[in-house]
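Entry type: protein chain
Record version: 2
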Amino acid sequence: MTISNAKDIEECTNLLKQSSMFHACSQPTLVKIAKDMEKVKFEPGEILLEQGWPQTKAFFIADGQIRRERVVNDQTHQVVDTFGNTEPDKFGNRKIAIGALHVIHSEPAFANAKAMSKGHMYTLPSQVIRSHLGDQKTGEEVVQSLAVEVRRQANQVRWLMRTPLLEQRPKKTNVIAVTIAASIESFYRSSLNAAMNARLSGQWGKLFPNMHIQLPARVLYINGFKGLRQFLDASVKPEEFSSPNLVRLALSFTPGILMTPLSSVLEASNAGHMNPEPIAKRWMRGNVWRMVREIIFGIGLNQMSDYWEERIPHSVIESEALRNAAGSMIAGVCSGYLSHIPHNLSTLKLMTPSKTYGQHLGSLVAQSEARVPTSLPPATRRMVATVIAILFPRAVMIRTVQIVGSFTILNGTINGLKYAELPTSIPTAF
C-alpha cells in the first residue's frame, strides 16, 4: 500500500533527496514520486535481496542498518560498508539507497542485502519509476541528478570491497587442491627451515630430513588451517553474540591453536641434529611460543592474505592470479616479521630444551651486541642490543622469505587449481 500521511511523505522525500538518482529533483517531483512508494518494515537477519535476483524495487532505508555483500570467485566481500543509519559521506549524503541504478529494467541485483537491525524503509517499484520517467520534467531532473553524480565520482571508484580483517570470509577450497599445494610447499619450507636453524645455531642439518613425517604432517596441517576456517565460518555466526568482534578474534585464533601439535611435529623433524631426544618427546619442546607463531601464521595465510588481495586496486593489478600472489606476499611479509621472535624462541627451546625462554632471549640479545658500537656505555649498549634483537631479529629475512614463499605457493596453487577438473566427491576441506 502506498504511503499517504504527511509524516511518511516528508521522510520519504528527504531520503530521495539524498540518493544519487533524485538528489537534484525539485520538491514537487520528489513528493509526487514519494506518494507512489511503499513503507516496509524489516527485522534483524532478514534477507531483503540476493545477488542476481531481478531488482524489481529500489530500497530507501529510513531507519536501521542493512549490510551488502557480493560474492566474487566463491568468496563473500562486504561492499563499501553498512547502509542506513550511517554517518554522512564527504558530500553530506548518507548511504540509504539500494538498487536505484538497477531498478528501471529490473536488472540483476549487484549484491546481497541483509538486515543487521530492526528498521523500516521505503520501496520504489520498477514500473512506478518507469511511469514517472515518462514525464518530461521528471526525466530531465533525474538525468541532471545522475549527471552531477557522474561528474562528482569521475575520479573515484564507485564501489570498493573493504571487508575488515577479522570479517574476511573464506573461499571455497577443494581438499585435493590444498593437498597438492601443501605437498609442493613442504619441500620449500623444509629447506628454508634448515637455513634458519643453521643461522640460529651455527650448525647445518639436512635440507629435507624425515620427509616421510614432514610431508603427510604438512598436508594435514595446511588442510587443517583451510578446513577449520571454512567449518568455523559455516558453524559460528559472530553477529549473533553480544561481542561479535571478540568472537571473530577467537575464531581467527582457533586454527593456529589447534594446528600447533602438528606444527610441533614438523619442527621436531628438522631439529634431530641438535636435540637427540626421540621425536615422540622432542615435538613438545617450545610449544608455548610456537602456538603464538601458529596463530600469526594462520591469520596471515587466511584472513590477511584475502584482506590485502581485496585492497589491491584493479587499476594496479587486474589479473586474479597476480592479485592473489601480491596479497599473499604482503601478508607473508607482515606475518613473517611479526612471528619471528616467537619462532626464534620456540626453535631455540626445541634445539636446547635445558635452557629457559628467558635464557634463550638473553642469548639473542648477546648475539645482537656484536652489532652495537663498543664505544657506548655497557648499559646503553645492552639496551640497544635488546631493541635490535626484538625489532631486527636474527634471521628475520630468511623467515620472511620463507613465509612469503609459503603463502604464495599455497594460496596461488589452491587458487589456480580451482579451475581444474578435480574430483568433487570431497568438495571442501570440511
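Comment: The longest strand covers residues 65-72.
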